[in-house]
Every structure is written in C-alpha cells, then in structure tokens.
Amino acid sequence: MDFLPNPGKNLIRKVGSEQWLRYPIKTRFITEQDSLDEILAQHILPFLEKGDIVVLGQKIISLLQKRIVYKKDIKVGRCARFLSKFATKTPAGFSVGNPLKMQVAINLAGLPRILFAGLLGAISKVFGQEGNFYRLAGHQISQIDGFYDRAFSQYGQIGILGPVKCDELCQELKTKYGYSFLIVDINDLDGNILGRSSDLKGKEKLFLEILKDNPAGQLAQQTPILILRQQ
C-alpha cells in the first residue's frame, strides 16, 4: 500500500537524531455503531510491521465508546450564552465559545466551578498564562467536540465528550495485537497524549513532538488513525 501525506503535511518528521514515518490511514466514516476491532482488522493490521505504533484519534475512540450528547437534548441557558461570549476563538474552533459546548461544560462541572475557572482563567491571561480555564474546570471539558458541521454534517447535531480509560484500552490492544498504541488529541495548535500502552509510558514528549504538526489533519481528511514507524 502506498501511503500519501495529507495536504500540507509530510510523511517524515525528524526529531533529534531519529526519523519517523507518519502514515495517515483513510477510513470509512466512523460512527458509534462501528467496532474498533473491525476497523483495525480492515484498515490497520494488514499494513503493520514489527515495531510500529498505532495512533488513534480521540474523536473516534469517544464515538466508539458512545460518549455522545445530542443537540436536541441540550437546553442552552442564559449563563451558557453569556459565558460563551468570553471564550477565546482559535483557528481550531470555537470550543466553549459555542453556547452548546458551554452548556455541556456547565452540565459536566457545575456552574459554580465553571464561574470559578472562568474568573481565574481571565485573571491568568492578564499575566500571559493560557489554558487555566480548562485545567481548573476539569471534567475533560477541553476535549468536548462536535456541534460543528464544517467538515462533516453528521457532527452538527451531536457533541462528543472525551474518551475514558484510555491507558487501559491501549494496553488491552497491545496485549491483543502485539503492537503499541496511543490515543491522542492533536490539533493545529497543540496536543495531548490521552492514553498509551505501558511500553510507551515516559515517552509522551517524544510523541507530541513527532505529531506536533498534526499529520492526521483536522477537517475532511478522514484519516483518524496514524501508523508511526521509526526509520
């Protein structure tokens, strides 16, 4: 199989003295009705070589775990509408600047905690510190996705929460298939390692550097899984 990079990305990234191949794997459109084992069997396992690392995007794991809330079930209150106006708009999206996402954040963390996080987050921005709102709010609020149909119309009507038990899932997959696994939340601004099989623990900074330019893309590339291969 010939692996091609996504537009504007490269297949190869050099980190220090190491050179890594990052193969984006195009899949069918994945929904909560799919099976991870079937996806791996169809799209990934036939192309793996010894030592490869499989990188799973956070969104597909959340969908497969049915971590979904539906727009029709969310009643956006006045507080969510008001607070969302103060959220920072970034090229990666509106985040809790979307009133629907802000309401989901309030539902998850409670209004008092969101107000506290918002206040301290605003103060810390004055001193050049970003991201404190999400750290203080907790509850995986930074991972709320969906309610956005620019790339896929299906995501306009659903919100997608952060995945759970990511380390455990990666280790189960490692035990089952013999390859190393990561679950990541990467965009064009930053990234997080959400889960890793036990053999990859302590190497998070390395993999964030390897994936720093978001080789899987963020819009309609439909490549939610990567294969990493060290040359």
Question: What does this protein structure show overall?
Answer:
- There is one protein chain.
- By secondary structure, the protein is α+β, with helices and mostly antiparallel strands.
- It folds into two domains: 12-67 and 163-230, CofE-like (60s Ribosomal Protein L30, Chain: A); 69-160, no CATH class.
- Helices cover 32% and strands 19% of the residues.
- It has a six-stranded mixed β-sheet with strand order 1-2-9-3-7-8.
Unreliable stretches (pLDDT < 50, length at least 5) are: none
Number of strands: 9
Q: Largest sheet at a glance? A: 6 strands, mixed
What overall geometry do the principal axes of the alpha carbons give? globular
CATH uppermost class of the largest domain: Alpha Beta
| Alpha-beta classification | alpha+beta
> Superfamily at the CATH H level of the largest domain?
CofE-like
